[in-house]
């Protein structure tokens, strides 16, 4: 008997999972993440709230540590105004002032950093590390008054 040319032959079922579509989806996701990752690291302009802050106690003036863009450090406290100082001297001076305040029962020493806007981030962080070595717990950053918005 001659086989029928229109008949179908039964093939065994393939029970294996086809992973090709999954690989395609993963490659598309990889491309999406590669494109969007650099966008996540850029800065975003935000409109910060403007609030009235608490004023410092008037009986104790803060110590102001100034850092110029060239890396010079100046300190202002009590009657000493804008004295040039090295990093080791800064740590010793602040440690002495801190110990004097703790012996006298005065609140902890208040230190403010007055840094030039052209300073590198690393220089300011190094200064803050020096303040931490001197035992200073709280450090503030001084800013200038914001420029008025241009009128159109």
Characterization of the model:
The chain is an alpha/beta fold and 152 residues long. The protein has a domain at 63-141: Nucleotidyltransferase, domain 5. The protein contains 3 helices and 5 strands; from the N terminus they run αβββαβαβ. The chain has helices at 20-40, 87-104, 121-133, and strands at residues 63-67, 73-77, 80-85, 111-115, 139-141. A 5-stranded mixed sheet has the order 3-2-1-4-5. β1 and β2 form a beta hairpin. The longest helix is centred in the first third of the chain and has 21 residues, at 20-40. The N and C termini lie far apart (97 Å). The relative contact order is 0.11. The mean pLDDT is 80.
Tell how many strands the DSSP assignment holds: 5
Separate helix tally: 3
**Oligomer category:** single chain
Order of strands across the main sheet: 3-2-1-4-5
Structural class per helix/strand content?
alpha/beta
**The CATH class of one domain:** Alpha Beta
Approximately how much helix is present in the residues?
Answer: 25-40%
What string gives the helices and strands in order? HEEEHEHE
Shape: elongated
Which architecture of one domain would the CATH scheme give at its second level? 2-Layer Sandwich
Write the CATH fold name of one domain: Nucleotidyltransferase, domain 5
* N-C termini distance: 97 Å
Q: Note the beta-strand portion.
A: 15-25%
Mean pLDDT over the full residue set: 80
The largest pleated sheet is described as:
5 strands, mixed
Backbone CA Rg: 33 Å
Unreliable segments of 5+ consecutive residues:
none
């Amino acid at each position: 008997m001659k086989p029928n040319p229109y008949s179908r032959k039964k093939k065994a079922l393939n029970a294996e999972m086809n992973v090709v579509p999954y690989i395609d989806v993963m490659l598309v996701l990889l491309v999406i993440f590669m494109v969007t990752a650099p966008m996540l690291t850029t800065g975003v302009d935000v409109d910060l709230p403007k609030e009235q802050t608490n004023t410092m106690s008037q009986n104790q003036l803060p110590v102001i540590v100034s850092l110029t863009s060239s890396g010079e450090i100046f300190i202002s406290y009590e009657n000493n105004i804008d004295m040039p100082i090295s990093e080791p001297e800064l740590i010793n001076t602040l440690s002495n002032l801190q110990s004097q305040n703790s012996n006298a029962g005065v609140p902890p020493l208040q230190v403010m950093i007055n840094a030039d806007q052209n300073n590198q981030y690393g220089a300011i962080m190094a200064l803050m590390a020096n303040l931490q070595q001197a035992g200073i717990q709280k450090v503030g950053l001084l800013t200038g008054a914001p420029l008025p918005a241009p009128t159109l």
